[in-house]
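Q: I'm building a small set of examples for a reading group on sequence design. Run inverse folding on the following structure and report the sequence directly after it, with nothing in between.
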């Protein structure tokens, strides 16, 4: 099995390097465990039953389905969440991690009942992906962007209900959220330094406002950039793999934290918190696969989570798990 996974990644890397070097447009999708890497030419995506939109460009139909959707969530039990949360805090207190993104799968029902593609057509998001009728993602979070020889990443950490009075001030002054965001910015700055030079923070802790099925929310992001070598196209497959898993949905230090995630969450994440993106023949744009609905045995499951630090409170983290289950309108 290990050899098989290694071979899959080598095949993925080889194909990505070849396509990028030759200017062939393609789409790629990588799962969190790096067991199911996927790449295909853009001209073949519909044959593969894949539809996508990145900043309004792609093969997803333009027509928007204006439907009022009721989303009913069967959130995982408080006891189950508390048990996992306690395990994570123990690992943090031992010094094995100082930030860990804890996630769970939650069963949902929609009224009216909709298929995955119909749900995606109602959603407004920067990055949208329908993958073989297995899952959809309407992600607000970029993974990496490459323009010419410059690489960018946009870590997103910190969420608050926009309807709370002074929400912007509260989220920017919250010590737990500030520490969490600082940790991820530092981690991703280090990650970019593996593949790029002249790494710097261009914008720090700016606010985006999102409209959702539960009301407006504010999310906090930063912008980091670096300069890639002139021959980056010849090894872009290797660059992607060196940056995975994305720091914002794993934690720090990354290697130890991912090991704890596997022990605590017990189930594989699959494509959830993996990445997808497009090389258009010149540049790259990609997203972290969050805000994610998966279809299993004709039932729908919404996967969500949040960052845990030593300052975390189980009540607020459990609430955040629920807050992130929404469809952006």
């Amino acid at each position: 099995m290990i050899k098989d996974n290694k071979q899959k990644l080598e095949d993925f890397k080889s194909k990505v390097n070849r396509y990028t070097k030759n200017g062939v447009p393609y789409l790629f999708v990588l799962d969190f465990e790096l067991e199911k890497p996927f790449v295909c030419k853009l001209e073949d995506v519909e044959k593969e039953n894949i539809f996508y939109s990145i900043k309004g460009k792609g093969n997803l139909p333009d027509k928007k389905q204006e439907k009022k959707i009721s989303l009913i969530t069967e959130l995982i039990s408080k006891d189950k969440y508390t048990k996992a949360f306690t395990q994570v805090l123990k690992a943090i207190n031992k010094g094995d991690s100082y930030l860990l993104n804890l996630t769970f799968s939650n069963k949902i029902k929609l009224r009216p009942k909709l298929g995955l593609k119909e749900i995606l057509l109602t959603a407004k998001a920067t990055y949208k992906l329908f993958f073989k009728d297995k899952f959809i993602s309407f992600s607000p979070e970029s993974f990496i962007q490459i323009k010419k020889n410059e690489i960018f990443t946009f870590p997103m950490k910190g969420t608050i209900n926009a309807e709370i009075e002074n929400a912007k001030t509260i989220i920017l002054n919250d010590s737990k959220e500030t520490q969490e965001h600082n940790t991820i910015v530092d981690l991703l700055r280090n990650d970019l330094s593996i593949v790029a030079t002249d790494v710097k923070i261009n914008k720090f802790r700016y606010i985006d406002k999102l409209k959702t099925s539960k009301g407006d929310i504010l999310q906090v992001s930063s912008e980091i950039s670096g300069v890639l070598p002139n021959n980056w196209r010849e090894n872009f497959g290797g660059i992607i793999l060196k940056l995975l898993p994305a720091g914002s949905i794993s934690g720090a230090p990354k290697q130890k934290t991912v090991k704890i995630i596997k022990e605590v969450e017990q189930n594989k994440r699959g494509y959830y918190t993996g990445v997808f993106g497009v090389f258009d023949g010149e540049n790259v744009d990609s997203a972290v696969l969050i805000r994610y609905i998966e279809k299993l045995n004709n039932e729908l499951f919404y996967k969500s989570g949040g960052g845990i630090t030593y300052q975390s409170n189980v009540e607020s983290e459990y609430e955040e798990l629920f807050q992130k289950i929404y469809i952006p309108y």
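Helices lie at 2-21, 78-93, 116-122, 167-173, 175-195, 236-243, 254-265, 314-323.
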